Amino acid sequence: MDNANKRAGFLDEVRGFAIICMVVYHIAFTLEEFYDINVPFLFDEWFYLIWAVFAGSFIFISGIVCRYSRNNIKRGAQCFLIGMMLTFITAVAAPSVAIMFGILHFLGISMMIYGLGAALWDKIPPPAGIAACVFMFAATWNIDAVWTRYNGEYVMAQEGVIGFKLIPFLSFSLPRALYEAKLLFPLGLTGAGFFSGDYFPLFPWVFLFLAGAYVGIYIKRGSFPSFFYTTRVPFLAITGRYTIWIYLLHQPIAMGILYFIYGY
To answer: pTM (2 decimals)?
Structure first.
């Protein structure tokens, strides 16, 4: 097809818009956390839903982009290393909001998972792969437990489950010991008091990433409508091509500007 192997400009634009939204969110969080400035929408339930949609779109498109990469294992290792550098920097500079397993850690591991298992993933027909990923994404959505403080101690207020809460025989509670180990947070199993300034665990998000990789087969073939391969908003498209650098640089720049404005 004429669009085969062409860069999907529309996806660059969506990814660019998503990273801009992420920047706005991080600035709002910084105002709340460091400057005690109330941002009304930040912790509203509706805003969390919007955040999940844009974060999910970013991850889904990142999975699609894997189909265009020559070496996902190398890209993933580089991305994860940058994420670990960010963990070290935030742990030293702002330990209260240190990033333990953020979007760069997640994307790095996901790229490597895809790259290492590429031969296996490609044996699965795309429709079956997409269906399986969507099912597993939904089934692991509630894998994390909810903790609360009671009489000065953390108490598990809600168990983490695999399956579907509305269907009892398809819902299985996970052992408390998995959460108390405190080392399984990259999988989405967080212990009492865990916090990460940016947090994207492998479960459920890796399944959305892999679903994108399956959809990417069709996009790379040129099977999508022509508008997918056309750039209409160059600014967003360029932004979408440099998301990692924007993610890395926006926070120190924003902190510097806020420090200049507020003087502390």
So the answer is: 0.89
Strand partners of residue 161: 173
Predicted pLDDT of residue 263 = 66
d(C-alpha 80, C-alpha 103), whole Å: 9
CA distance 63 to 107: 9
**Residues in contact with 212: Cβ distance below 8 Å, sequence separation at least 6, in sequence order:** 59, 60, 61, 62, 63, 64, 65, 66
Cα–Cα distance, 79 to 85 (Å, whole number): 10
Q: Identify the CA nearest to 196 among candidates 209, 181, 206, 186.
A: 186
Helices 243-262 and 9-35, interaxial angle, to 10°? 30
Average pLDDT, integer, range 116-130: 95
CB atoms within 10 A of CB 247: 22
DSSP 94-159: -GGG--SB-HHHHHHHHHHHHHHTHHHHTTS-HHHHHHHHHHHHHHTTT-S-EEEEETTEEEEEE-
Please give the Cα distance from 68 to 55 (Å, whole number): 21
- pLDDT tens, residue by residue, 189-243: 998 888 888 899 999 999 999 999 999 999 999 888 888 899 999 999 999 999 9
Q: Which tokens is 211 given?
A: 């679903």
Give residue 141's Cα distance to chain centre.
13
**Category of 188 on φ-ψ map: left (φ > 0), alpha (ψ -120 to 50) or beta:** left
Q: Output the CA–CA distances (angstroms, integers) from residue 8 to 107, 228, 231, 237, in the order listed.
A: 20, 5, 8, 10
Beta strands in the chain (DSSP E): 146-150, 153-158, 161-163, 171-173
